[in-house]
Amino acid sequence: MSQSKRKKLQEKKREFKQKLKKNIDDLDIKDKSKLKAIAIKYDEDKGKAPQIIATGKGKIAESILDIAEKNDIPFYEDEALANILSKLDLESEIPKELFSIFAEILAFVYHLEQMATKRSKVRDRFAKFRKGRS
To answer: What is the CATH number of the domain that holds 15?
Structure first.
């Protein structure tokens, strides 16, 4: 991989990490009454496009994010994307024009989950190793 491609990939990863949040307090929003949240469901077994399962503003958005936070579902913070998706009907599939954005988001989240799984396995092995030596 060329140096410029590697740099672009690293920049894209940095951008995703900045937009990926784990809890409500990490969000870059000052006025929570203007907060918008959209919950997306993707079932890769069905092979359909991601589907909008919840949308909300203000307190409802906070509730959506609370549920996500309690279930360890990461947030992807993108105001422009939220504005577009909030105009769509519940249970509708995301438009084809947004597939590439969602593909990148899903790929990045999948990558993070894989890394977390590997780290967990390493921690478990290390704990067993330490236990065996005591």
So the answer is: 3.40.1690.10
For 91, residues 6+ apart whose C-beta sits below 8 A from its C-beta are 51, 52, 53
Number of domains in the chain: 1
pLDDT digits (tens, 9 = 90+) for 15-61: 766 666 666 666 667 777 788 999 988 887 877 888 999 999 999 99
Q: Is residue 23 part of a domain?
A: yes
Closest CA to 59 of 29, 25, 32, 31: 32
The pair of structure tokens assigned to 119 is: 């780290």
Q: Which residues 6+ apart lie within 8 Å of 72 measured at CB?
A: 22
Selection from 74, 78, 67 nearest residue 28 by Cα: 78
- Is pTM, for the whole model, over 0.85? no
